[in-house]
Protein backbone atom coordinates (compact mmCIF):
# COMPACT_ATOMS: atom_id res chain seq x y z
CA UNK A 1 0.00 0.00 0.00
CA UNK A 2 1.33 3.42 -0.92
CA UNK A 3 0.82 6.62 1.03
CA UNK A 4 -1.78 7.83 -1.49
CA UNK A 5 -3.67 4.52 -1.21
CA UNK A 6 -3.68 4.86 2.57
CA UNK A 7 -5.07 8.39 2.28
CA UNK A 8 -7.75 7.19 -0.16
CA UNK A 9 -8.84 4.38 2.21
CA UNK A 10 -8.99 6.73 5.17
CA UNK A 11 -11.05 9.18 3.09
CA UNK A 12 -13.50 6.38 2.21
CA UNK A 13 -13.83 5.34 5.84
CA UNK A 14 -14.24 8.96 7.02
CA UNK A 15 -16.44 10.79 4.49
CA UNK A 16 -17.03 13.61 7.00
CA UNK A 17 -13.34 14.66 6.72
CA UNK A 18 -11.80 16.57 3.82
CA UNK A 19 -9.15 14.67 1.88
CA UNK A 20 -6.66 17.52 2.33
CA UNK A 21 -7.06 17.18 6.11
CA UNK A 22 -6.44 13.44 5.94
CA UNK A 23 -3.32 14.06 3.81
CA UNK A 24 -2.06 16.54 6.40
CA UNK A 25 -2.71 14.08 9.26
CA UNK A 26 -0.93 11.18 7.53
CA UNK A 27 2.02 13.37 6.54
CA UNK A 28 2.31 14.75 10.08
CA UNK A 29 2.33 11.25 11.61
CA UNK A 30 5.07 10.07 9.23
CA UNK A 31 7.11 13.25 9.78
CA UNK A 32 6.90 12.89 13.56
CA UNK A 33 8.03 9.25 13.37
CA UNK A 34 10.96 10.23 11.11
CA UNK A 35 11.95 13.15 13.37
CA UNK A 36 11.83 10.96 16.48
CA UNK A 37 14.06 8.37 14.81
CA UNK A 38 16.46 11.11 13.67
CA UNK A 39 16.77 12.19 17.34
CA UNK A 40 17.54 8.57 18.25
CA UNK A 41 14.19 8.00 19.97
CA UNK A 42 12.18 4.79 19.79
CA UNK A 43 8.61 5.00 18.45
CA UNK A 44 6.22 2.36 19.77
CA UNK A 45 2.71 1.89 18.38
CA UNK A 46 1.02 -0.59 20.73
CA UNK A 47 -0.31 -3.64 18.92
CA UNK A 48 1.46 -2.66 15.70
CA UNK A 49 5.17 -2.52 16.41
CA UNK A 50 8.16 -0.41 17.32
CA UNK A 51 10.52 1.65 15.19
CA UNK A 52 14.07 2.19 16.38
CA UNK A 53 17.50 3.05 15.03
CA UNK A 54 20.34 0.55 14.99
CA UNK A 55 23.99 1.34 14.43
CA UNK A 56 25.87 -0.69 11.83
CA UNK A 57 29.60 -0.84 12.37
CA UNK A 58 32.14 -0.03 9.66
CA UNK A 59 33.17 -3.09 7.67
CA UNK A 60 34.92 -4.25 4.55
CA UNK A 61 32.46 -5.11 1.79
CA UNK A 62 32.89 -6.50 -1.68
CA UNK A 63 31.96 -5.01 -5.03
CA UNK A 64 29.84 -7.79 -6.60
CA UNK A 65 30.82 -6.81 -10.13
CA UNK A 66 34.59 -6.72 -9.71
CA UNK A 67 35.11 -8.67 -6.49
CA UNK A 68 37.21 -5.76 -5.19
CA UNK A 69 37.19 -5.04 -1.43
CA UNK A 70 35.45 -1.78 -0.50
CA UNK A 71 35.44 0.06 2.84
CA UNK A 72 31.87 0.62 4.10
CA UNK A 73 31.49 3.33 6.75
CA UNK A 74 29.41 2.90 9.90
CA UNK A 75 25.83 4.09 9.58
CA UNK A 76 22.49 4.32 11.32
CA UNK A 77 19.65 2.25 9.88
CA UNK A 78 15.94 2.17 10.75
CA UNK A 79 14.66 -1.04 12.34
CA UNK A 80 11.06 -2.24 12.81
CA UNK A 81 9.95 -4.93 15.20
CA UNK A 82 6.37 -6.15 14.88
CA UNK A 83 4.06 -6.08 17.86
CA UNK A 84 2.42 -9.18 19.27
CA UNK A 85 -1.09 -8.34 17.96
CA UNK A 86 0.20 -7.74 14.43
CA UNK A 87 2.18 -11.01 14.45
CA UNK A 88 -0.89 -12.88 15.65
CA UNK A 89 -3.06 -11.29 12.96
CA UNK A 90 -0.56 -12.19 10.23
CA UNK A 91 -0.25 -15.79 11.43
CA UNK A 92 -3.89 -16.57 12.16
CA UNK A 93 -5.54 -19.14 9.93
TrEMBL record:
This protein's UniProt keywords: DNA recombination, DNA-binding, Transcription, Transcription regulation, Translation regulation
CDD domains, A to Z: IHF_B
DNA-binding in keyword set: yes
InterPro entries reported in the protein's UniProt record: Hist_DNA-bd (IPR000119), Histone-like_DNA-bd_CS (IPR020816), IHF-like_DNA-bd_dom_sf (IPR010992), IHF_beta (IPR005685)
MF terms (GO), sorted A to Z: DNA binding; structural constituent of chromatin
GO BP: any one term: regulation of DNA-templated transcription
Superkingdom, taxonomy of origin: Bacteria
Cellular component terms (Gene Ontology): chromosome; cytosol
Coiled-coil segments on the chain, per record: none
PANTHER family, sorted: DNA-BINDING PROTEIN HU (PTHR33175), INTEGRATION HOST FACTOR SUBUNIT BETA (PTHR33175:SF5)
HAMAP family: IHF_beta (MF_00381)
Family indicated by similarity: Belongs to the bacterial histone-like protein family.
Record note on quaternary structure: Heterodimer of an alpha and a beta chain.
Free-text function comment from the UniProt entry: This protein is one of the two subunits of integration host factor, a specific DNA-binding protein that functions in genetic recombination as well as in transcriptional and translational control.
Entry protein name: Integration host factor subunit beta
Name of the encoding gene: ihfB
Amino acid sequence: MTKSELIARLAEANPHLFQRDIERIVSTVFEEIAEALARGDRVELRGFGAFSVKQREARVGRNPRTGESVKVDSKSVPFFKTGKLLREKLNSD
